[in-house]
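thread: overnight batch results

M.L. [08:02]
morning all. the overnight job finished for the chain we discussed friday. pasting input first so we're all looking at the same thing
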Amino acid sequence: MKPTTLRSMSATGASGAWSAVLAAVRPEHQAWSAPWSRLPRASTVVPALFGLYGLVVAIATASAVLNGRGGLLGGVAFLYLLPAVLGLAVAPRRPLDGWLAVTCWLVVLRLLVPAAPEQLPVMETWHWLLWLPVLLLAAWAARGRALLGVALISLAALIACAIVDPLAVDAGSWSTALVWLGAPLVLGSALGARQRARSALVDEQERAEEALARQGALAERARIAREMHDVVAHHMSMIAVRAETAPYRLPDVPPPVRTEFAEVATAARRSLAEMQGLLGVLRSEDGADRAPQPGLGDLEELLRSARAAGAPLEWELDLPEAPAALGLSAYRIVQQGLANAAQHAPGAPVEVRVTGEDGVLRIEVVNGPGTAPSAASGGGNGLPGMRERAALHGGTVDAGPLPDGSFRLAAELPVAGR
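M.L. [08:03]
and the structure it wrote out:
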């Protein structure tokens, strides 16, 4: 292998180690999901317990171990240990911050606390009592590069504590120190991985339950649609049959009335066919029907049928190319607008404009004041349904009376995919 390649691999390894260190020492971006977070008042009680534990260790260490070492007074030694106690209290809420504070301060204590007259382990017992809890929590909370950074910095701190005064360190204690260092890191990382796996499993189960609930709702809607079809189809068929047979059952029916009966029968048959097509959409397993649905190209036929039924209707169509779903929504909005005009203002002239420019399909249905009595009671679902259809495409529907007593319905639908 060429020297340049070796230098490149070395630089890459050093860069990865440095990135891991930075991931461990930078402020935490994600909230620490503590295992006790669901317990009542645990966010206050657990840090207090960790802080109390640190105080007990600090008092015992200052009075029984460090008091008198190299002339150091127990009260001063206790003050030296307080930053580590603070790190322990912080660790349950912010494990990486607490671990970093305790780790750095243990190195500083090597400089502040006088060496013992005899050789001691790399880390004394009181060191481990302060360090092990934060090591465990840090390995539990960290993942990926941050976990590698925790291991590297902890190992560097262990080496730093040894080289501050190498003659005072028992060389035979290194193997024990490495075991004590590795055990909480391995255990903490295993517990963290297990907790994250359980959380992911719970999230997946919740998503599966939501999907099942949606599937159940769709099945219920399909069942209701089938029942509605059975009820409405019967009556629509009866209307069509009676309208078709009326000229033969009733004597002396004038030709205009025969024509009216024929148009009523045709409208009933068309409505029945559209309802059967909608039912096919609900019944299909993949949620889509292969049968063609009405679109922008069918608007003129709709308007001609409405005019033939007696509505004084004028229209202006300038239709752009649009997706089938948008065309279906536009068709239904115009259809509902004509139905509202016939219901609330029977006999009033109606003007329909459907134009497309600047990537927006604009629909306008304006009817004048009614000239015949209205049987409408109001409070229907026409306008909410139109707004829902428009919202599916990011559009809007505006409807309201005009000063002269007429009524205006305006919809704007963005034409996607142009």
